[in-house]
């Protein structure tokens, strides 16, 4: 009895973490080689991310990535040495977008608690905007081994240091803040709860954000 074909991976949302590049012109063209490689590289990053979100690390082979990206094996190896290099480059893009979004949250006219709430809003909103990329790098990424976990630690520790420094500047010399490790621990907790939500058929990120906001605002109240 036929069971039907395996569903295709869900595509990323264009313009959130990745921008789908324009297709290369057919036949001879005047695009510089650097532009050709840049477009192929982005297509490979997107394809690897979609496959990772769909089937985990086992689904991300060089040939499947090239097939999905419409790129040759030669093009892949001009951009990356291994499939892991490709995935980690995509993860670095994911983190760079997050840092850009979180740094852009302003504190003018807000209390510290309101600022923390705005940071949480920004975090959960960007996850909600592209659930494919969110699942790839918050659920499936950790199973790629020590290098993946090292990159996760570096990202979370860096964000924790940023929030700790921001809070110290906020309260000035008259106030006290928790140790830096407390901010890192809070980020680990928030990330894990978001990852648990993403690892369900219908992620409820707004509900997760609301439950997280209660204890985070109390823990870091000034």
From TrEMBL:
Superkingdom of this protein's organism: Bacteria
Keywords: DNA-binding, Transcription, Transcription regulation
GO molecular function per UniProt: DNA-binding transcription factor activity; transcription cis-regulatory region binding
DNA-binding region(s), chain positions: 61-80
Database matches in Pfam families: TetR_N
Domain HTH tetR-type: 38-98
InterPro entries linked to this entry: Homeodomain-like_sf, HTH-type_TetR-like_transc_reg, HTH_TetR
Keyword flag Isomerase: no
Name of the molecule in the record: AcrR family transcriptional regulator
Species whose genome carries this gene: Nocardioides marinus
Source organism phylogeny: Bacteria, Bacillati, Actinomycetota, Actinomycetes, Propionibacteriales
């Amino acid at each position: 009895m036929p069971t039907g074909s395996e569903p295709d991976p869900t595509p990323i949302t264009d313009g959130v973490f990745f921008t789908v590049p324009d297709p290369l012109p057919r036949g001879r063209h005047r695009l510089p080689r650097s532009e050709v490689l840049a477009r192929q590289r982005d297509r490979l990053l997107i394809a690897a991310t979609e496959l990772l979100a769909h089937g985990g690390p086992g689904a991300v082979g060089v040939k499947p990535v090239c097939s999905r990206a419409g790129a040759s094996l030669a093009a892949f190896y001009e951009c990356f040495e291994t499939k892991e290099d490709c995935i980690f480059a995509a993860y670095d893009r994911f983190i760079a977008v997050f840092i850009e979004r979180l740094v852009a949250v302003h504190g003018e006219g807000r209390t510290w608690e309101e600022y923390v709430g705005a940071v949480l809003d920004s975090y959960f909103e960007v996850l909600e905007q592209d659930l494919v990329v969110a699942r790839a790098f918050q659920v499936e990424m950790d199973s790629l081994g020590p290098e993946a976990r090292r990159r996760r630690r570096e990202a979370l520790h860096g964000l924790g240091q940023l929030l700790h420094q921001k809070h110290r500047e906020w309260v000035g010399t008259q106030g006290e803040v928790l140790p830096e490790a407390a901010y890192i621990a809070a980020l680990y907790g928030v990330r894990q709860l978001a990852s648990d939500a993403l690892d369900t058929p219908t992620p409820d990120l707004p509900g997760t954000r609301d439950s997280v906001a209660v204890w985070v605002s109390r823990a870091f109240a000034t």
